[in-house]
Each structure stands twice: as structure tokens, then as C-alpha cells.
Amino acid sequence: MGGVIGKAESPRNGWIPETKLEAKMVEAMQRRALEGTSMRSFNSVILKFPKIDESLRNCKAIFEQFDEDANGAIDPGELKHCFEKLEITFTEEEISDLFEGCDINENMGMKFNEFIVLLCLVYLLKEDPAALHAKSRMGLPNLEATFETLVDAFVFLDKNKDGCVSKSEMVHAINETTSGERSSGRIAMKRFEEMDWDKNGMVTFKEFLFAFTRWVGIDDIEEEEDAEEKV
């Protein structure tokens, strides 16, 4: 485990974030949870998939702009240039934490779906005017609304407002939508297993985002492109 931050431990479930980044994410989600959510059911989250999908796919141009050697992945140096161009002020340590946190395959190259997760975490963690200015300069006015929808969806699932989603919270959220359907418990378990990347029984916002890129088919884009290149 990396730099464990005991303070961020949730008294409800005993889960401890593994890195400073995880701790910041949990704190940010706890703050957002206090503001409430406009989501009323898991179905309302699902209905937004097509719009979210379209908005996230529009990030491809930004990704290609910062993938300077056009190898289909953003390396740490390219990520640093990306932040410099967008005038987002992160320390070297924060950039390193973000890169390591989003480079799920640990291959020192951030794929498109990993880059989307990173952008959303930047949105969540940096709410200062400079970051807002940078986001508007990206030329994607819908991106902020999309990220806000994703935050809203996570807050809806996080019933006890501790910054993470547990298995029982996932079951609760899906049962609210599909009351009386026998399959709802199985659906909830399947969705939870897809989200719980590290299999520790708790889902962070980052894990939720990675699952989301799979649900709406963002990571399929790369598989399709890889297949085309091989033809």
C-alpha cells in the first residue's frame, strides 16, 4: 500500500484510501454528497448513458492533441505538457499520483478511457477558477455537465455519504428501481463486481468511472481501432 492516510478512514466501513489521491477523491465526494443529488433511480442514470457516451467520445480530439507521438497513449511527459497547456496547476507529486492512479494497466501509457477518468478527476479535485477557465478553454462546453452527471450518479449510489459505494448500497439503489423483480439482486451484484476493480468490497469514484467507460463502450473504441490497424 502507498502513503496511507489514516484520517481519511471511514468510520462506517473501516476502508482506508491507499494514496493521497484516493483520500482527496473520497473527501471531495463526501463534500458533494452533502449537496444532494438530482438522480431518483438507477434507471435515470442508465437513461443518460447515450448523452454521456457522445460527450466522452468528443474528448478523443483532446486526447489526440496531447498524444504528441501519436502512439495511442499519453505518457507522463505528455501529461505534464497537457496540464501546462491547459494552465492547470498541479504539483509534480499530484501529476504523478494522477498518472499512476489512472494508468490501470501500469504500462506507463494512458489509454483513451484512462484519460477520460483523469479529466473527470481533475474536474472533481480542482474547482478553483483557474481550472474552470482551463476546462472552458478545452472547447468542450458539454464536458462539465457530463462530469457533473457522473458525480451526481455516484452520489445517488453512495447512500451513507461516506465517499465510497458498498455492495449493500448498490443492491439498495437497484432494488429501489426494480422492486419486486427477482433478478434485481443479481443485476446489482454484477454491476458492483464490474465496478469493484481491486475487489476490496468498496468502490471509489475512480473505479466507478472506469466501469462507466466500459458500460457506455468507450474502451471498445480502442479495440475497434486496434482491429482496423491489424487488417
UniProtKB/TrEMBL annotation:
The keyword Ribonucleoprotein belongs to this UniProt entry's keyword annotation: no
Signal peptide (from-to): none
Keywords associated with the record: Calcium
Domain of life: Eukaryota
MF terms in GO: calcium ion binding
InterPro entries, A to Z: CML21-like, EF-hand-dom_pair, EF_Hand_1_Ca_BS, EF_hand_dom
Domain EF-hand: 54-89, 145-180, 183-218
Keyword Transcription regulation part of the UniProt annotation: no
UniProt cross-references to Gene3D superfamilies, sorted A to Z: EF-hand
Any one Pfam family match given in the protein's UniProt record, by short name: EF-hand_5
CDD domains in the record: EFh
Stored PANTHER family: TROPONIN
Protein name: EF-hand domain
